Amino acid sequence: MTHSTRILLGVNIDHVATLRQARGTRYPDPVKAALDAEEAGADGITVHLREDRRHIQERDVLLLKDVLQTRMNFEMGVTEDMLAFAERIRPAHICLVPETRQELTTEGGLDVAGQEGRIKAV
């Protein structure tokens, strides 16, 4: 099977950060989890920097930018701040996701038709 025909594996490390934040400690470390996933064969790492920074922190994303050997898939809300951050880190992929502060984790999909103007502006 050639690289272009095989299915690529992306590993989302957000819940590692969720555990760290819930514990109020420096562990488990999502950056280490990402490196472990790469070493185990992952083709990319997915990370969602929420506007409220409740899980993944900017520091995590900046460290990942420097150490990842594969692709970063950066999930982000549709905001000017997130766009500016994405332009700064230049990930391989960006995935626009809906965010509301009331949800514990991302639920549902992005209402592209309902937010067309906002998405075009960003």
Automatic annotation (TrEMBL):
SUPFAM superfamilies from the UniProt entry: Pyridoxine 5'-phosphate synthase
Q: Which UniProt keywords apply?
A: Cytoplasm, Pyridoxine biosynthesis, Transferase
By its UniProt entry, which Pfam families does this protein fall under? PdxJ
Q: Which GO terms describe its molecular function?
A: pyridoxine 5'-phosphate synthase activity
Per the record, GO CC terms? Answer: cytosol
- Which Gene Ontology BP annotations are present? pyridoxine biosynthetic process
Question: Can you name this protein?
Answer: Pyridoxine 5'-phosphate synthase
| Source organism of this protein record | Pseudomonas syringae pv. pisi str. 1704B
